[in-house]
Design brief:
10-stranded mixed sheet, Rossmann fold, globular, alpha/beta, single chain
């Protein structure tokens, strides 16, 4: 499987000067001078410079003339009806927050969205994980691809333990036969993993993974890596951060966690604005939120800057836990089935209506959601409704 390295510059001795292009014929006197296509790095530098509305309009006009409509076309998450409720998907310069309790499926949803973004032939996803190694994320994706959402064929499903046992067994067999099998050959030759590997290979060169460190992967490091990737991908990039509270703020020093979260969320929003990319970040709940019956945006660890800085905020709750008592008592059997469903609530939405509830079926053993969701029909509880 061919790999593309974005962070390795060629050595000076490897660089050869490009051949001189043939001289262009002089333009007729009546022709206006051709405008140079703006450089993306220069655009980022000019983002904080004062410009007249006429200049902004001219730049937008030049983009449309070149056929560059990326400012107007959102990047779909692949989750329906979520995309429809947030204006079609993720938009450049916007910061999206995804929150919820531990174990609710935040990383599953975020990695699946990153996979959906990278599955587009013209787009790249940059996924920074402070929780998992790149190899673990790859194994999760193999399990996800084994059920192939949105088709979701559970009969072909591959659990993580199944994957590990298969690799160990095949490697042991090859040792006995004095063969030197690689991981790729094991996955390619086994009927249970050959198709998941083929599906993953379709976007493997466009999904960039980083095992981030709370000690060294600072806001500045994220910005520098994202900036280089923006140049390498011609700006067709979405940044994913898992998760926000673990981003390091060195050399800045925060007095407490609230101040640190303020620095981080403001920094991520500035990355989205300055580089012209969507930034999608997971946020963790505080202790009060973990004890509450339903988690909201104000339960996220940190400061009110989370609410002010983000453009879209989505909160995840287990459906069974937030169903009204009437719905549970009316049909207890169906209510038990709702333990596998997660309610996504859009609590903030600058592009449309907020407080919209939709539900998606979580297939946790395969690290995947069925992205074909639906609006919630049953009555859900809220803290205000259950206080005695």
């Amino acid at each position: 499987m061919a790999t593309r390295r974005f962070f390795d510059d060629p050595q000076p001795e490897e660089r050869t000067p490009p051949p001189s292009p043939p001289a262009a014929p002089p333009a007729p006197p009546s022709s206006p001078p051709a405008r140079k296509a703006p450089n993306r790095r220069n655009n980022a530098a000019l983002a904080h410079m004062p410009r007249t509305l006429t200049q902004v309009l001219n730049e937008a006009n030049d983009m449309v003339l070149r056929g560059d409509l990326t400012e107007y076309v959102p990047v779909a998450t692949g989750f329906d009806p979520l995309d429809g409720l947030i204006g079609g998907g993720l938009r450049k310069t916007e910061l999206v927050l995804l929150g919820g309790a531990q174990g609710i499926g935040k990383t599953i949803a975020t990695l699946q969205i990153a996979r959906n973004v990278a599955s587009r032939p013209d787009h790249y996803a940059f996924y920074l994980s402070y929780e998992h190694t790149e190899a673990h994320l790859m194994n999760r994706l193999l399990c996800l691809e084994s059920i192939n959402p949105p088709e979701v064929d559970l009969n072909q499903g591959l659990r993580l333990k199944d994957l590990y046992d298969l690799i160990i067994a095949e490697r042991a067999k090859s040792t006995i036969r004095a063969e030197n099998m690689t991981l790729q050959s094991i996955l390619r030759d086994n009927p249970r993993t050959s198709m998941p590997l083929a599906r993953m290979s379709r976007y493997a060169d466009r999904l960039i993974l980083v095992k981030a460190s709370p000690a060294v992967t600072t806001l500045r490091a994220i910005r520098e890596m994202a900036s280089r990737l923006v140049d390498a991908t011609n700006g067709n990039l979405t940044v994913f951060v898992d998760y926000l509270q673990k981003v390091a703020t060195h050399p800045e020093r925060a007095a407490d966690e609230g101040e640190k979260v303020t620095i981080v969320v403001e920094g991520l929003k500035d990355i989205a604005l300055a580089l012209g990319v969507p930034v999608f970040a997971i946020v963790a709940a505080d202790r009060e939120g973990l004890r509450s019956n339903r988690i909201h945006l104000y339960h996220m660890r940190g400061s009110s800057a989370l609410d002010y800085e983000c453009d879209i905020a989505i909160m995840m709750n287990n459906k069974y836990s937030i169903l009204s008592k009437e719905a549970i008592s009316f049909n207890p059997y169906q209510a038990r089935q709702w333990r596998e469903w997660v309610v996504f609530t859009i609590e903030k939405n600058r592009a449309g209506r907020a407080m919209q509830d939709m539900e998606f079926h979580l297939h946790a053993p395969f690290f995947a959601f069925d992205p074909r969701g639906q609006r919630v029909q049953q009555q859900l509880i809220d803290d205000k409704l259950i206080e005695s």
